[in-house]
Amino acid sequence: MPGGDEQLAELMAGVMSQRLDRDHPLWEYWVVEGLAQGRWALISKVHHCLVDGVSGTDLYRVIFDFSPEPSPPITDDRGVGAEPTALELVAQAALDNAMLPARDALALSSAVANPGAAIRQATDTARAMARLAPALRPATGSSLSGPIGRQRRYTWTRASLDDIKKIKRELGGTVNDVVLAAITGGFRALLLARGEQPGPHMVRSLVPVSVRAQGDESVYGNQVSAVLADLPVHIADPEERLAAVRTELEDLKASKEHMAGEALVAIGGYTLYPLASWWVRLALSLPLQDITTVTTNVPGPGQPLYGMGRRLLEIIPYVPIATTVRTGISIFSYNGNVTFGITGDFAANPDLDVLAQGIEQGVSELLVAARRHRRRAAAKRQPAAQRR
Predict the structure, then answer these.
(1) Does the predicted TM-score (pTM) go above 0.85?
(2) Dihedral (CA of 175, 177, 180, 182) sign
(3) Which residue intervals of the chain are DSSP H helices?
(4) Helix (H) or strand (E) holding 273
């Protein structure tokens, strides 16, 4: 019998629950056959040490084509070197360690050549860390946080990008504000279904922020910072909920909280290795166990892509979870559609579908609110005689 969304989601959860084999390159591609309507799928699994969301999205331009006609193969005449022996790896590691003083000297010379930039970078880092600290007050306890195991559940839900943009136009904010408001509605529905009263500061989300310079999308690696946002699950009205999300994110942007991570990314260009590593250790020592979830939004290709002459119907995103974060949501747009990929700890989330349905309902409620707002605005524009 052909597989549907539920079977594909179960396979995704199983594949993503497995640790990548450290004896091989830290990526895998799985070809999935036997889906309904003659479809097939690719499951892409790449370690975050290789790419972040933006550079990972750029890989689609490498793997897929922009038309049904396949691109001509790229000539690659590079030779494959012999695999290094254990002794060679040890020798290379020893050489790298011996070269650290030289690299530190180069870093020091860069700082001396541009002391103003080095001082500004260190100052920005200190200020950003100070701004970040108040946001790390303990989150209100709920079933959304706690110990997790190795197994995962996975599901997804969909929305129209046009609908998201209609909500944005009528009610204000950004596309990211709207999707976070819908996700907030989803978590509210999940808490209520579990018999828990949603309250302020109950759902704190890590929201990744790209710090890439424009034009660096194809440069692989990680160039990402983050902010911590409290999702207002205590607000029942969808329009008021969106307004609260907008206010929260605008305040975070004004505080430049994301500069803490951005400074850590850039500081290595001006400081000695020991100082840079000290900043990283300081960042990692913050009580991030108070994060309830992660919500990452990455815009994908706006035009259809093709693989071996077949049109790519949709791209379903996945975000990993760790420590005490029991759920994570990845938002990805492709060719006019928005997909919310929802990862959950297996034991803690037997009701993960409630969260998915709550997000879908959150979009629907905001769309109704946007239409109501448009009707009210149109009524105000009518002449008084016509209103009578």
Answers:
(1) no
(2) negative
(3) 5-17, 53-58, 60-63, 86-113, 115-132, 161-171, 175-193, 238-255, 259-267, 273-284, 352-381, 384-387
(4) helix 273-284
- The answer to whether 209 and 227 have CB atoms below 8 angstroms apart is yes
Which backbone phi and psi does 3 adopt, to 5 degrees? -85, 145
> 317: burial class by Cβ within 10 Å (0-12, 13-18, 19+)?
buried
Task: Tell me if residue 32 falls in helix, strand or coil.
Answer: strand
Which of 48, 201, 234, 258 is labelled catalytic?
Answer: 48
In angstroms, rounded to a whole number, what is the distance separating the alpha carbons of residues 285 and 139?
A: 17
Could you tell me which of 357, 327, 332, 354 has the C-alpha nearest to residue 342?
327
Q: Where are the beta strands (DSSP E) in the chain?
A: 27-32, 41-46, 152-160, 203-210, 224-231, 293-299, 306-307, 310-311, 327-334, 337-345
DSSP type of residue 24: S
In whole angstroms, give the CA distance from residue 125 to residue 160: 39
Domains and CATH numbers, the chain: 103-387 (3.30.559.30)
Can you tell me which residue has the tokens 């494959």? 80
Rounded distance, CA 26 to CA 18, Å?
12
Instruction: Tell me the two tokens of residue 372.
Output: 């109501």
Active-site residue flag, 48: yes
Distance CA 181, CA 188 (A): 10
Closest CA to 222 of 210, 204, 234: 210
N-term to C-term CA, the chain = 62
CA pair distance 245, 184, nearest whole angstrom: 9
- Measured from the Cβ of residue 38, the count of other Cβ atoms closer than 10 Å reads 9
- Written as tens digits, the pLDDT of the chain (388 aa) is 688 999 999 999 999 999 999 888 888 999 999 999 999 999 999 887 777 656 667 778 788 899 998 888 778 788 888 888 888 888 888 887 777 666 655 555 555 556 665 565 555 555 555 555 555 556 678 899 999 999 999 999 999 999 999 999 999 999 999 999 999 999 999 999 999 999 998 999 988 764 444 554 444 444 445 678 899 999 999 999 999 999 998 887 776 554 455 544 444 444 444 444 444 444 444 445 578 999 998 888 999 999 888 999 999 999 999 888 999 999 999 999 999 999 999 999 999 999 999 999 999 999 999 999 999 888 887 765 555 5
Q: Going by C-beta distance under 8 Å and a sequence separation of 6 or more, which residues neighbour residue 275?
A: 267
Identity of the residue numbered 131 = R
